[in-house]
Design goal:
Elements: E1 3-5, E2 12-14, E3 16-19, H1 37-49, E4 54-56, H2 61-64, H3 66-77, E5 84-89, H4 99-110, E6 116-124, H5 126-135, H6 138-147, E7 151-158, H7 162-171, E8 177-181, H8 192-201, E9 205-209, H9 222-227, H10 234-243, E10 250-253, H11 258-269, H12 278-293, H13 314-323, H14 329-337, H15 351-355, H16 362-380
Parallel strand pairs: 3-4, 3-10, 4-5, 5-6, 6-7, 7-8, 8-9, 9-10
Antiparallel strand pairs: 1-2
Helix pairs in contact: 1-11, 7-8, 13-14, 13-16, 14-16
The chain binds iron/sulfur cluster (SF4) (2 copies).
């Protein structure tokens, strides 16, 4: 196993972390709460035996059953002492000041431990940053929990945009680490690759989640696969893209079979900062463009089209629209609804299409996109 310094925390973490949200389920079950505890326990023990020293869970994972399962595993096997344990405050359930202690204490009880090594505010977004966090005094309380020893290090996980990401980092001196979504396709999404660099430059340890884009890069579409050299598996290329970056402390993988544990451990043991050549990075960039080509709108977020004279966030609207293709259509709608100027405000001036390297015809697409979001909005309404 390879290990890296985890920002300024003083911890040395394995470059591969075990994400505890995709355990195998009991035979025949589709309910996330029915974890196959025997197999999952064996997988964790095997990973730890191979040097993995970071387990990442959260209050919500496996319908609230991931933490209690880990607690039982720790009691039975004693591996708590061998690993760093990370879990997260369920921010979306926090309604009042007392909720912080209520959840943290319940999590300590579930996990059968007296402290959490790495405690994160789960999925900070603009609303929570501007409302819940100050109103419920969460930053003051998380500092207090560190002082009284219930937690050791303070961090946050994140899925909003780059601008807010920087704002959050700059606003609180006590952040020690953060967790962001990154993979070779998502370099311009969410915190972005620039956000990754920024966080590291501020001394934060950076954890990567969704290195395989929810598994999509493990068995990518044919055109993406064809762009990748067969010398490594698509999974190894995707992980190496991240391990190549010195800003990355560790990459989480939500492992769901023993084979995945075995493969990922081998990949991790071969990893190193700066391991990819210029031509390998160019190959991954080609694979990214191929991946985007399969999207509903092949927007690469180059932003040559910006600004739109009528104020539309053109690449942002295409990103939301592309997300409607998977399971995330209601999340995409929420993001779309936050946009002050929506696709129906396109005046078909054609300025963007003239400069777009992908020749995306916004005048034609924007009204259709708006219509599609109206449909999704209607699907949400009961009855
Ligand atoms: S065509 Fe629509 S999206 Fe493109 S620049 Fe004109 S108004 Fe903006
Ligand atoms: S110019 Fe085209 S590809 Fe680039 S951001 Fe605008 S719409 Fe997307």
């Amino acid at each position: 196993m390879e290990y890296r310094e985890f920002g300024k925390t003083g911890a040395k973490v394995s470059v591969l972390g075990f994400g505890c949200m995709r355990f195998p389920l009991e035979e025949g079950s589709k309910e996330p709460k029915n974890i196959d505890e025997k197999t999952s326990g064996e997988m964790i023990l095997r990973a730890v035996e191979q040097g993995v020293n970071y387990l990442d869970t959260a209050y919500f994972y496996h319908d609230n059953e991931s933490e209690p399962f880990l607690g039982r595993l720790f009691e039975r096997t004693g591996i708590r002492e061998k690993i760093y344990l990370a879990t997260k405050l369920p921010l979306s359930l926090v309604k009042e000041e007392g909720d912080f202690d209520r959840f943290l204490n319940a999590q300590l009880e579930r996990l059968k431990t007296d402290h959490i090594d790495f405690y994160l505010l789960h999925c900070v977004n603009r609303k929570e940053w501007e409302e819940t966090i100050p109103q419920c005094k969460l930053l003051e309380q998380i500092k207090g929990a560190k002082k009284d020893g219930r937690i050791r290090h303070i961090g946050f996980s994140y899925h909003d945009d780059e601008e807010l990401f920087r704002q959050i980092i700059d606003a609180f001196d006590e952040w020690e680490f953060c967790q962001i979504q990154m993979n070779y396709v998502d370099i311009e999404n969410q915190a972005t690759i620039r956000g990754l660099e920024y966080a590291a430059s501020k001394g934060l340890g950076v954890i990567i989640m969704e290195p395989l884009l929810g598994g999509k890069l493990a068995s990518p579409p044919e055109n993406v696969k064809a762009a990748l050299s067969p010398e490594k598996t698509p999974v190894e290329w995707a992980l190496d893209f991240l391990w190549n970056r010195p800003e990355v402390s560790l990459v989480l993988s939500g492992m769901s079979s023993m084979q995945m544990v075995e493969d990922n451990v081998v990949y991790a043991s071969r990893s190193a900062e700066g391991m990819l050549s210029k031509s390998e990075l160019e190959m991954l960039e080609k694979a990214r463009v191929e991946y985007i080509r399969n999207s509903l709108v092949p927007c690469t977020k180059c932003r040559y089209c910006m600004p739109c004279p009528f104020g539309l966030d053109i690449p942002g609207i295409y990103e939301d629209y592309n997300h409607t293709a998977g399971n995330g259509k209601f999340g995409a709608l929420r993001s779309y609804e936050k946009k002050p100027i929506q696709a129906d405000q396109c005046k078909a001036c054609g300025k963007c299409t003239k400069v777009c390297p992908q020749q995306i015809d916004s005048a034609e697409l924007m009204p259709k996109i708006h219509e599609r979001f109206q449909e999704i909005r209607n699907e949400q309404k009961p009855g």
